[in-house]
Amino acid sequence: MTPLILALILGSLFSLGTFLLLRRDLLKAILGVIILGQAANVYLITMGGISGTVPVLSDSSSLISITDPLVQALVLTAIVISLGTTSFVLVLLLRVYDEHGTLDIDRLWGQL
Amino acid sequence: MAVIIFLPFLAAAFTFFIYPVLKEKTAHFAAFIALICAFLILNLIGTTGSISIPLISSLDIHLRFYVDGLSILVGLLASGMGLLTFIYSFGYMKTKTQSPTYYASLLVFMGSMLGIVFSADLIVLFVFWELTSLSSYLLIGYFNHESSSRSAAKKALVITSLGGFFMLLGFLLIHSLTGSFDLTFLLSQPESIQFILRENGIFLPILFAIIIAGASKSAQIPFHIWLPSAMVAPTPVSAFLHSAAMVKAGVYIFGRFHPILAGDEWSLILITLGISTMVITAFFAIISTTLKELLAYSTASHIGLMLIGFGIPLTLNGVPQSLGFVSGSFHLFNHALFKATLFLIAGIITYQVGLNTISEIKGLRKKLPLTAGFAVFASLCMAGFPPTSGFYSKELLFQGIYAVANTYGGIWWLLPLLTIMASAFAVVYSLRFVMIFFGTPSSDQQDVSPLPLSMMLPTSILTLLSLLTIFYLLLPIDLISQSGSPYLQDISTLHVGFPAHIDPPLLMSLLSILFGIVLFSKHEQILKRMSSILPFAHFSADSIYFSIISTLETWSSSLTYRTERILLRTHIIWLLGLIATLGLARFIYLKPYFLMISGPPLRLDFLVFLLIIALGALAVVRANSHIMGVLFLSILGFMIAVFYLLSNAPDVALTQLAVETLILVVFLVIIGKLPAYYGDASSPRVMRDMLLSLFIGVTIFFTVLIATTSSVSKNIAMFFIDRASYPPTYTENIIVDYGGGTNIVNVILVDFRALDTLGEISVVALAALSILTILSSRKPGDQS
User: Which helix (H) or strand (E) holds B67?
Assistant: First the structure.
């Protein structure tokens, strides 16, 4: 059951993210990119196994059923980087609006 | 050995430094380089063998060089002719615009020609092959302010590099089966290589590829059109290109691959190609109007004859014979001598009287007596009059052609007939060339200026060499017989020399000379009568080329317009759609739907939060204002943090919380400055986007199913977990003792993968800097 539900949720996340990406409102497209990024992170974490124990050493824990620490480290890095890129894209968005007076991709295209 | 090839390239680079000092004397420097090369190659005579310098060992590409009779012969021609070309250039280029590019590209041209000749690695050979195309492009288009030069250069480049493409294809096919780019290896057992290729059914594709490559370079029909156009090049370049480089590279390829590819198909194609080119281009030579055009077409025609030579079967009536190979190479040698002479003479005439059109030049005999003598001799050579060297090589070729016709009979008797016809044509155009020296000169010709020694010297040397060949006929043939080809064993039985009695080949020669002289006396009337169809015959191949090129240009620009000048969104749709289709096709093949039911049931708390996440995403999509979208996105982010927490990833969850909060803050800062939400324009587009998104979602659904249920190797994870074992098995605990912490994720981030983390921090810092730059740069409305 678990893989089925995870697959359904991730499928819908990616689907909604793609749909947002294709909107003509630039901010919506950015929201789509963010959702796609989040979904990818969740995907990675699920691949590392979600039912193990916390990857922290203690006397009592058994290391056999530990969740994958490497995946977690990767996702952690990805999240921090997404902070940088998202902020940058948002400022760029602001700049586009300042320059062109619109965030409608169709109209921006017309201005080229 | 390698010196011979790299010296010209090195010298070419040097040219740019010494040109400001030496000016036109750079020609002497270049000639000196060519002299060294020629001398080094002379030293190689009598040796065969190969050397190898590893270049890209993993791809089995080495700088291999190979020396045998054929390569020494063509190499000598290339360097010797290069030497004479440079001497001649000194005088010739005085009146033209000079630049170091001329000498540099001519040196590169010579160097790459030597490279083709001596390299024994197919890939290296291909590189040099393309280098000759490139350098000839520069040389043909040397007078680049004239559009005809540019167009001719482009034509030569397009056609010869098309051939180069086929050559690469052929080489890769050879490598795919034999696993070797080593020509020495391939030539050491040609029969078994051919057997392997035939067994696997790729012999014919390789044969076609190599023949197209050679034919494009040696200007065989239908690729002959670049050669007459290329006459816009400076005359020394034309002489070099026709006698020892470029077209001879094409012929060399036929000679080189002769042992591996020779067979029935090879003979049929080469003989057909050769005879048709020989006849048609000989005819073009008769109707051409300028000296250089005549010579250009005659080159294509003579090369057709060489091809017939290479095409003569290896065994006739079960008797092995080397006639074709030897006579082809021998004619190559003779042709180089007389064709270079004639080109240099054409250059001298244009230099002296400023004319190039045949009908306008008359009676030069008195003004240029010495040149006239050389020209008559070389023209007779070209026409194959006895006892010039051209006669002997033609005689050998006729011997082969007669033998073929005699053996196969039937339609093959056309071959000697057509050969006689083409040779008669050759007599006609040779006599046309000779005739410019006779007759009464037109009165308005200005007095000839004194001829520089540098232009006369190479012409004399060439004529002398051509004369000497008559007395030492066996010299070039001996040279060729050093080739590793196993078909050259009966070389001693070849009869070279003036025939003692009248035999069919001699009869063919005499017939063609007789026929040619008769034709020459009538050719002007005949041509006048044919004048209505002549322009058509002349330009048909050319117009096909131009229409192909212009069609391709239109196509590519419209294709670029349609695929590049579109919204990024359209790109995304195509890309995602394609990736999803490919992925889905693969997953359907893997049949993942069996996996759905497996695995433990999901805990209820997971289910709840995952549902909230999905609903949050849906809410972002449905939101009809920017602020609502951002808020729902935040909810989604925080719920994902909770999901991380439930999945036993507390560090990730903590980071997600912090980042989510920060991003929310950034959003809220800028959202007030943004316009209201636009809404969506047309419902058909929404429908289309929904379908695509659904498609993507389904693909991801299957990937997750497969990814989470397959047994992923956890080697790297196990590496960390093993070394973290606390306390039992390891005496040393790496995570705790060296990492200084008990949280494995943290230790990975700051110790094991510290460089990654450094990169991550740099990204954030760079983003911050960029944001600062954008915000502090000019405001809209400012005049920058």
Answer: strand B61-67
